[in-house]
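Predicting holo structure, pyridoxal-5'-phosphate bound.
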Amino acid sequence: MTPNKTSIYLDHAATTPLDPEVLVAMMPYMDGSLSFGNASSIHSFGRYARAAMDTAREQAADLIKADFSEIYFTSGGTESDNLAVIGAMNAAPAHKNHLIVSAIEHHAVLHAAHFLESQGYEVTILQSDSTGLISPEALQSEIKPTTALVSIMHANNEIGTIQPVEELLTVCRQNGVLFHTDAVQTVGQIPVQITSLPVDLLTFSSHKIYGPKGIGVLYIRQGTKISPQAFGGTQEREKRPGTENIPAIVGFGRAAELTAARRECDNISIGNMRQFLKTKLSELVPDIHFNGNQEHCLSSILNVSVNGVEGATLLMNLDRMGVAASSGSACSSGSIEPSHVLKAIGLNRDLASSGVRFSLGRKTTVEECGEAAQIFAEIVSRIRQ
Ligand code: PLP
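Done. Tokens:
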């Protein structure tokens, strides 16, 4: 099945299209014209592959102003989050068995935390305010002498709220606790630089910045102890064994380089379009709610709820009318479970079930936003009648 060619794609927080320049960079490592080698091999095929990987590592490091040696390639954001949370807890001294994560984390962090709890670790789930913000004071009040790690995302993937990570990091520093942030939604959109945000661990992913899928990075500050979660090779300095996916790594590196050059400009135009979409929706849809913090937010994500209309119904109708959006709700045991994020910020079941996320990208146009708002309004009005 191929998507409708006239589709308006407003789901960039789920994934972004591959940048054609990224594909150009990857091709010689897929067709083997530059190298199909294994980066661990001693011969020239291997050396070419390793050189390409080194360049990509430099490009990824440069994007977040980190050191080359602190970049570890993984299979994506999910694996990086798991490696950060489980790896740091496993490597902590025995008496440091307490982990704090926020209630609005991506499941890659939340489910890793639940797994650790099942293994006997103590886990605190920190609540946010009604806009999705985590307060540094609330974090401080949960830290104990046994706390080893705090994991709080940089910006939320459903509602776009950007956390006060600098302040949260300060709380961790003052208490001698490690800090991990899932920056999958922010790297590539807003400046995320280790030089000014010196976290211990940071996750980012290629397919959110117009790179290929299935490749991500865990930034690990030098000296931070992490236990590997897979075994059988010495790759990635024994933190993440397995033959490296060179074409994907090369693509990720190129995407990082292109993003660094385009980010600022993209962000301004995407922010203007978000504002336009929001204004149009406010004009056209009575009783529409905008979820998440509207000041400290990503310029690309607009999350809305409309009373009395299921998000899944809205999404199916949008899709039928050529608009691709998404919601955080999940189908579980035959019923639709509202998004854990919308529930965590205190929306009632009705509003939480009706959440729809529009996420804009580089190629989104004002015309598309206007059309999407019009279509959304028509659907809501039809269903409400
Ligand atoms: N963390 C956040 C905030 C995300 O938005 C996502 C993906 O949507 C992930 C982690 C998982 O990343 P990946 O799809 O690369 O596994």
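The first strand starts at residue 8 and ends at 9.
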